[in-house]
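Researcher: Go.
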Amino acid sequence: MRRDDQARLALLGLLLGAMALAVFARLAWVQAIHRERYDNPTNISYHRQYRLPARKGELLDREGRPLARCAQVASVAANPQLVSDPGLVASTLAPLL
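Model: Structure:
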């Protein structure tokens, strides 16, 4: 390699090194020293919270056929140990069911 080419290559290396150093210095400045200054506007513009009501409905398989459905069902339960006259309780609840 000629002396001219070596000098040009050294100058090019120096310039690229100085540019890389400037980029890393700016990166350190922004992220480490002035972190709070850049942190708030980012959170405000990109993070929002919304309350979405839960959707209730059918559970479907991959072809859209229902697997389970939500339905309101009336139910009655009785503790047999607390029922003294099962016939009376049954005749009283029968018309309601």
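Model: The helical segments are 3-33, 35-46, 86-93.
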